[in-house]
Design goal:
The chain is α+β, with helices and mostly antiparallel strands. It has 5 helices and 7 strands, in the order H-H-H-H-H-E-E-E-E-E-E-E. The chain has a single domain, classed as Nuclear Transport Factor 2, Chain: A. The chain is 34% helix and 27% strand. The strands form 2 sheets. The chain has a 4-stranded antiparallel beta sheet. Strand 4 and strand 5 form a beta hairpin. The protein is globular, with a radius of gyration of 16 Å. Keywords: Signal. InterPro entries: DUF6318 (IPR046281). Residues 23-40 have a biased composition (Low complexity). This is DUF6318 family protein.
């Protein structure tokens, strides 16, 4: 069995995350639970209007809302094959972001598609890096994903639970994801 491009990108992300681990990483700080930015959320997600308002500010809540926007944009790209918006909110230096977008482009340009349900967040924390950027840490359930090739042959990636870290920096327009890493896929 061969790995499909998106599955390979996820595997690459896992390898990068494990190789980048160090003991001097900042300890995550659990966000204070408030009605607008809970520290731990279930399957409910904020409305689009709330998300836009929240991610438009330079704050931990804005960073967490922008990470949600990035994930929603990734999901839309995977389902539609259009990676334009995903690339626009990812920095040019985010290799993992480019790997995800390239894998989606490859799948669709060769007549295939990706079928997947929404990823479910089970825990959200954040920390601030020494460079004053933010890291948003998510534990999430990734549902089964189906990769369909041009002939209609389906390969399935099993559901898993993983921790993702979104490194991001504040820009004028306003945030950009600079790195995505994962660990603990099970």
């Amino acid at each position: 069995m061969t790995l499909r491009p998106l599955a390979a990108a996820v595997a690459l992300t896992s390898a990068l995350a494990l190789s980048a681990c160090s003991s001097d990483d900042p300890d995550p700080v659990v966000a204070d639970p408030t009605p607008s930015a809970p520290a731990s959320i279930g399957e409910a997600t904020p409305s689009a209007d709330t998300t836009v308002d929240a991610w438009a500010e330079e704050s931990p809540e804005g960073a967490m809302a922008f990470a949600q926007l990035w994930l929603d944009t990734f999901t839309d790209a995977a389902r539609s094959g259009d990676t334009t918006a995903l690339r626009s909110i990812s920095s040019r230096g985010c290799a993992t972001c480019a790997d995800f977008a390239d894998a989606i482009d490859h799948r669709y340009s060769h007549g295939g598609s990706i079928e997947m349900d929404d990823w479910v967040l089970t825990r959200v924390t954040w920390s601030q890096t020494p460079e004053q950027n933010f890291a948003v840490n998510w534990t999430m359930r990734v549902p089964e994903q189906r990769f369909v090739d041009a002939r209609g042959i389906v390969e399935t990636a099993a559901a898993l639970r993983a921790k993702y870290t979104f490194q991001m920096r504040w820009q004028r327009d306003p945030w950009q994801v600079t790195a995505v890493t994962t660990e603990g896929a099970s």
